[in-house]
Amino acid sequence: MDERIIETEACIAEGMAHLARTEPRFAAAVARTGPPPLRRRDDGFAALLSAIVSQQVSTAAASAIWGRMEGAGMTTPDAILAADDEALRTCGLSRQKVRYARALAAAGIDFDALRAAPTPQVCDTLVAVPGIGIWTAEIYAMFSLGRADVFAPGDLALQEGARMVFDLPDRPRPAALRAMAEAWSPWRAVAARLLWAYYGLEKQREGIR
Q: What pTM does this model have?
């Protein structure tokens, strides 16, 4: 695999310098937000389960649910498969997310192999699991695997951040934002971090957990 991996704040600074040189609006945005955060996470089952928990709920709600799951020891495949539905629902999972958590636990994903796999293969592997869509797969590739050139155009906070930074009349739809982000390669994941930071500054709430 020949893909740049974001490992340190120096990587973020390198990517941000490139983006600021090539797009004046990014230079103006980072002048307001300061350097975007590293946002690296562990990879593996728990990281992906946490991403499922975060789907379609606020960042505060996702953090609360995940805290209950950690407290109950419900963060491993064996624990998820051994728990009854009521125990998982008590943690805050919806009926649908209980099904998704069980599907992930039973999927037998080789997380070590994903570290060396190309990003498209990572996404294909993950979206084959019920409950994991392209947003979850791209967030995992971005934060847990540190891929520098991945983007998540389905993310509403990224769409709103792009609308504000680029002074667009409307929030761009995913296909339009994906096309727009092609100009930000090979540092699309740094552009995403900046757009989340800008969203957080303007809206006074976190756009990503």
A: 0.90
